[in-house]
Design goal:
- Helices cover 30% and strands 19% of the residues.
- The protein has helices at 58-72, 85-93, 104-112, 165-176, 191-199, 215-223, 233-242, 280-292, 295-300, 322-330, and strands at residues 46-50, 76-80, 99-103, 125-141, 156-158, 185-187, 205-210, 226-228, 247-251, 263-275.
- It holds the Pfam family NMT1_3.
């Protein structure tokens, strides 16, 4: 992988300002400010977008965004398969990628140097804006007989890839049920590997944090008897009260094959992050391209319908890149 060397940029301390309300109107939202010293004006001849595994939502949408950037912003771009949200933040830090899809909560941990980033904050991390809701889906095989998260005790459960955002989400949801990873046989697998192991009978359940419908679950539901667990109302309240990043979410019936009833769960926001060192006009062009050309992305995954300019600040607590700020000010999202 080629590492790009920045040209004389100065690393500034990023001031993190949380949004006053995830669901507030754009005029009400507090916009995180970026230090201009971080933005050194790099214009790479080709951009790399960090996504996730091929069985998730990040990779296909990232590929669609790369194609749009090539077509509309006239800059070469490619989507890179990665370990998803957490790894993507580290790739940004190392300047091995230029853009990265991640979870809003993971971006905040990265910027603050907390949770899995206690070894060092990501100082060059900024945001373009919010993309869509990422649903936490607890998938169980029908033959397991599991009807509630509380019944995962003693079972074989995948909590996501090692160090992933899914792993953090799983831990926080289990906490509401008084459970930890020690209460069952824990495996740390990608979405695709989790689905395969459920299909083969080697796994009872798996946590999946991704836009619904998720390719891995869709294929599993079509070939194997599975269910997605509802999170009970009192547990959902406990989760959303304690962790600001979560919101209540409903997976409509028929989202997946053989899914006859809606599923109530929680979600976090997927956001597009970017290296702070990139040129302001380049990032303006990328931001404009993403928010004004969603139809090709919707054709890839229906979750792209949620990529809307007026929702661009939802779930964003890290600084916006000046190029993104410029575009959102033009659109009246930032006053």
């Amino acid at each position: 992988m080629i590492r790009r060397v920045s040209k004389g940029f100065v690393i500034a301390i990023v001031c993190i300002m949380a949004l006053t309300a995830c669901g507030g109107t754009p005029q009400e939202a507090s916009v995180p400010k970026a230090s201009e010293a971080q933005n050194a004006g790099e214009k790479p001849s080709s951009l790399v977008i960090a996504t996730g595994g091929t069985a998730g939502t990040y990779y296909p949408l990232g590929g669609g965004i790369a194609n749009l950037i090539k077509e509309k912003a006239k800059t070469n771009a490619t989507a890179q398969v990665t370990g998803a949200a957490v790894e993507n933040m580290r790739l940004i830090s190392k300047k091995e990628v230029d853009l990265a899809i991640t979870q809003g909560d993971i971006a905040d941990y990265a910027a603050l140097g907390t949770e899995m980033f206690k070894d060092g904050a990501v100082k060059n991390l900024q945001a373009i804006g919010a993309l869509y809701q990422e649903t936490i889906q607890v998938v169980v095989s029908e033959k397991s007989g599991i009807k509630s998260v509380s019944e995962l005790k003693g079972k074989k459960v995948s909590v996501g890839a090692p160090g992933s955002g899914t792993e953090v989400n799983a831990r926080q949801i289990l906490e509401a049920y008084g459970l930890t990873f020690n209460d069952f046989s824990t495996e740390r697998l990608s979405f695709g590997d989790s689905a395969k192991k459920i299909q083969d009978g080697g796994l009872d359940a798996a946590f999946v944090t991704a836009g619904a419908p998720t390719a891995a679950i869709n294929e599993l539901a079509a070939t194997t008897g599975v269910q997605i667990l509802t999170i009970e109302a009192d547990k959902m309240k406990a989760i959303t009260d304690k962790y600001k990043y979560y919101s209540q979410q409903v997976i409509p019936s028929k989202t997946y094959p053989k899914q006859d009833a809606e599923v109530k769960t929680v979600a976090v926001k997927a956001i597009m992050s970017i290296r702070a060192e990139l040129d302001t006009q380049l990032v303006y062009d990328i931001t404009k391209t993403i928010y004004e050309n969603t139809q090709p992305l919707i054709a890839i995954n229906a979750k792209a319908k949620e990529i809307q300019t007026d929702k661009a600040l939802e779930g964003i607590s890290i600084p916006l890149h000046p190029g993104a700020q410029k575009y959102l000010k033009e659109k009246g999202v930032i006053k």
